[in-house]
């Protein structure tokens, strides 16, 4: 059984599915428009709707729906950060309910400066409830803990470059890879936090 935070993340990820669906639709629209132009037909001004989203490709290269790809990367990072804050809050309420008068105040304080969820920052966040190395055991098939941390840092770096206005080339494959990474990272973290809370309290939190 997953945490409430994980279930909320699952709902949020539908945003990414919508972006990927739009990516596919716009790419197909671009291809259709190109075929019509080659055949001598004219497409109505509806084609102008996608001009700002579909980048003009370089010579010999396919069209790239760059704005959607970059937007998806930023949104994925936001969803990952939101999940981490949510699962921390959920665990904190269980861990501190009997010892802290105002758990919500502690949660607000702990998460107030939390951003760019690098591994060390996640560890620092969870240290507030006694789990200072919560990320250090995360791994999955063909991804060691060090590889997971490197990939996380790489995705955040791309997000930051986009957010600061740098022109970053992001492919749909990169978006797909980050989406799968977020899902796996959250799934594994959910289990690690659950097990840590169980060891500390004697019962599973979810």
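^ Assign residues to that structure.
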């Amino acid at each position: 059984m997953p945490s409430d935070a994980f279930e909320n993340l699952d709902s949020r990820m539908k945003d990414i599915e919508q972006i990927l669906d739009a990516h596919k639709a716009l790419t197909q629209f671009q291809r259709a428009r190109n075929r019509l132009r080659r055949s001598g037909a004219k497409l109505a001004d509806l084609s102008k709707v996608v001009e700002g989203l579909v980048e003009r490709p370089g010579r010999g290269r396919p069209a790239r729906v760059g704005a959607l790809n970059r937007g998806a990367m930023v949104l994925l990072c936001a969803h990952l950060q939101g999940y981490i804050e949510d699962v921390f809050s959920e665990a904190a309420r269980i861990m501190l309910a009997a010892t802290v008068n105002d758990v919500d105040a502690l949660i607000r304080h702990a998460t107030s400066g939390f951003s760019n969820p690098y591994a060390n920052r996640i560890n620092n966040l969870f240290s507030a409830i006694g789990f200072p190395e919560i990320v250090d055991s995360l791994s999955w098939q063909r991804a060691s803990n060090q590889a997971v941390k490197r990939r996380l840092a790489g995705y955040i770096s791309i997000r930051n470059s986009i957010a600061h206005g740098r022109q970053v080339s992001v492919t749909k494959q990169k978006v797909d890879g980050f989406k799968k990474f977020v899902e796996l990272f959250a799934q594994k973290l959910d289990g690690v936090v659950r097990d840590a809370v169980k060891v500390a309290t004697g019962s599973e939190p979810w």
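The chain is about 65% helix and 0% strand.
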